[in-house]
Design brief:
It is a single chain. With 87 residues, the protein is of the alpha+beta class. The protein is built from 2 helices and 3 strands, in the order E-H-H-E-E. The longest helix has 13 residues. The N and C termini lie far apart (65 Å).
């Protein structure tokens, strides 16, 4: 009996706040990426919807790597704001 090979796509990566500029300090992260990031970190208990648990985890992870602010635009989309120092 042949074994079934599961194809895995490219891993999701949290956007880097250092990649933003003063003219473009925000980035939108949509549902698919939010869930992809969460499920990579929680492979034993993956989420199917962007719940309050997923939002809290995402907010903590984003601010932990340096994003200044997370704003949930709607139930599934978050906007991240980098802390840009203008010279």
């Amino acid at each position: 009996m042949a074994t079934k090979t599961v194809k895995q796509g490219r891993p999701h990566e949290m956007p880097d706040p250092d990649d933003r500029s003063p003219n473009s300090p925000h980035i939108i992260v949509e549902r698919k990426s939010v869930l992809g990031l969460y499920n990579q970190a929680h492979s034993s208990k993956p989420a199917k919807v962007v719940s309050e648990t997923v939002r809290k985890w995402f907010d903590g992870d984003a601010t932990g790597i340096g994003w200044a602010d997370t704003t949930w635009v709607d139930d599934n989309t978050v906007m991240l704001r980098a802390n840009i120092v203008r010279k």
